[in-house]
Amino acid sequence: MQKKKQKIKHNGKITIDKLASMVADGFDGLENKINKGFADVNASFTQIDERFDRIEIKLENLERRIFAIENILTEHGRDIRKMQEDIREVKVELKALKNVENGNSDKIFELEQRVKVLEVKV
Which of these, 114, 68, 107, 64, lies nearest to 87 by C-alpha position? Predict the structure, then answer.
Protein backbone atom coordinates (compact mmCIF):
# COMPACT_ATOMS: atom_id res chain seq x y z
CA MET A 1 0.00 0.00 0.00
CA GLN A 2 1.61 3.17 -1.16
CA LYS A 3 0.97 6.46 0.48
CA LYS A 4 0.63 9.59 -1.52
CA LYS A 5 3.60 11.82 -1.12
CA GLN A 6 2.82 14.80 0.94
CA LYS A 7 4.33 18.10 0.22
CA ILE A 8 5.71 19.44 3.39
CA LYS A 9 5.46 23.12 3.92
CA HIS A 10 8.06 24.05 6.35
CA ASN A 11 8.96 27.68 5.89
CA GLY A 12 12.60 26.75 6.06
CA LYS A 13 12.13 24.50 9.07
CA ILE A 14 11.35 20.77 9.26
CA THR A 15 10.21 19.31 12.51
CA ILE A 16 11.73 16.14 13.90
CA ASP A 17 8.36 14.40 13.50
CA LYS A 18 8.13 15.37 9.83
CA LEU A 19 11.71 14.27 9.20
CA ALA A 20 11.09 10.96 10.95
CA SER A 21 7.97 10.45 8.84
CA MET A 22 9.89 11.18 5.64
CA VAL A 23 12.68 8.76 6.57
CA ALA A 24 10.15 6.05 7.53
CA ASP A 25 8.35 6.48 4.17
CA GLY A 26 11.67 6.09 2.37
CA PHE A 27 12.52 2.91 4.28
CA ASP A 28 9.05 1.45 3.67
CA GLY A 29 9.60 1.71 -0.07
CA LEU A 30 13.08 0.24 0.25
CA GLU A 31 11.83 -2.66 2.37
CA ASN A 32 9.21 -3.51 -0.27
CA LYS A 33 11.86 -3.49 -3.01
CA ILE A 34 14.18 -5.69 -0.93
CA ASN A 35 11.38 -8.14 -0.13
CA LYS A 36 10.46 -8.38 -3.81
CA GLY A 37 14.11 -8.93 -4.70
CA PHE A 38 14.41 -11.74 -2.15
CA ALA A 39 11.19 -13.32 -3.44
CA ASP A 40 12.58 -13.26 -6.99
CA VAL A 41 15.86 -14.82 -5.84
CA ASN A 42 14.00 -17.51 -3.88
CA ALA A 43 11.87 -18.32 -6.93
CA SER A 44 15.03 -18.66 -9.04
CA PHE A 45 16.64 -20.97 -6.49
CA THR A 46 13.49 -23.08 -6.41
CA GLN A 47 13.64 -23.45 -10.20
CA ILE A 48 17.34 -24.34 -10.02
CA ASP A 49 16.66 -26.92 -7.28
CA GLU A 50 13.89 -28.51 -9.37
CA ARG A 51 16.18 -28.62 -12.40
CA PHE A 52 18.98 -30.27 -10.41
CA ASP A 53 16.48 -32.80 -9.03
CA ARG A 54 15.43 -33.72 -12.60
CA ILE A 55 19.08 -33.99 -13.66
CA GLU A 56 19.87 -36.23 -10.68
CA ILE A 57 16.94 -38.51 -11.55
CA LYS A 58 18.14 -38.75 -15.16
CA LEU A 59 21.68 -39.54 -14.00
CA GLU A 60 20.42 -42.26 -11.66
CA ASN A 61 18.37 -43.78 -14.50
CA LEU A 62 21.39 -43.72 -16.81
CA GLU A 63 23.56 -45.27 -14.12
CA ARG A 64 21.06 -48.14 -13.70
CA ARG A 65 20.95 -48.69 -17.47
CA ILE A 66 24.76 -48.72 -17.72
CA PHE A 67 24.93 -51.19 -14.83
CA ALA A 68 22.40 -53.44 -16.59
CA ILE A 69 24.40 -53.25 -19.85
CA GLU A 70 27.61 -54.06 -17.99
CA ASN A 71 25.94 -57.09 -16.42
CA ILE A 72 24.66 -58.27 -19.80
CA LEU A 73 28.11 -57.87 -21.36
CA THR A 74 29.73 -59.70 -18.46
CA GLU A 75 27.27 -62.57 -18.81
CA HIS A 76 27.64 -62.51 -22.60
CA GLY A 77 31.41 -62.71 -22.22
CA ARG A 78 31.03 -65.71 -19.92
CA ASP A 79 28.66 -67.31 -22.43
CA ILE A 80 31.14 -66.79 -25.26
CA ARG A 81 34.00 -68.23 -23.23
CA LYS A 82 31.84 -71.24 -22.35
CA MET A 83 30.91 -71.73 -26.02
CA GLN A 84 34.58 -71.53 -27.04
CA GLU A 85 35.45 -74.12 -24.41
CA ASP A 86 32.62 -76.40 -25.61
CA ILE A 87 33.76 -76.06 -29.23
CA ARG A 88 37.34 -76.99 -28.27
CA GLU A 89 36.06 -80.08 -26.44
CA VAL A 90 33.86 -81.08 -29.37
CA LYS A 91 36.80 -80.68 -31.77
CA VAL A 92 38.96 -82.92 -29.57
CA GLU A 93 36.22 -85.55 -29.40
CA LEU A 94 35.62 -85.38 -33.17
CA LYS A 95 39.33 -85.76 -33.84
CA ALA A 96 39.46 -88.82 -31.56
CA LEU A 97 36.42 -90.34 -33.33
CA LYS A 98 37.93 -89.58 -36.72
CA ASN A 99 41.09 -91.47 -35.74
CA VAL A 100 39.01 -94.45 -34.61
CA GLU A 101 36.97 -94.43 -37.83
CA ASN A 102 40.09 -93.82 -39.94
CA GLY A 103 38.42 -90.69 -41.39
CA ASN A 104 35.73 -92.68 -43.17
CA SER A 105 32.63 -91.17 -41.50
CA ASP A 106 30.48 -88.66 -43.35
CA LYS A 107 28.80 -87.72 -40.07
CA ILE A 108 32.14 -86.78 -38.49
CA PHE A 109 33.01 -84.66 -41.54
CA GLU A 110 29.61 -82.91 -41.36
CA LEU A 111 30.04 -82.21 -37.62
CA GLU A 112 33.56 -80.86 -38.20
CA GLN A 113 32.17 -78.44 -40.79
CA ARG A 114 29.46 -77.29 -38.40
CA VAL A 115 32.04 -76.77 -35.65
CA LYS A 116 34.16 -74.62 -38.01
CA VAL A 117 31.09 -72.45 -38.71
CA LEU A 118 30.45 -72.11 -34.98
CA GLU A 119 34.08 -71.09 -34.38
CA VAL A 120 33.71 -68.27 -36.88
CA LYS A 121 30.44 -67.10 -35.30
CA VAL A 122 31.83 -67.13 -31.77
Answer: 114
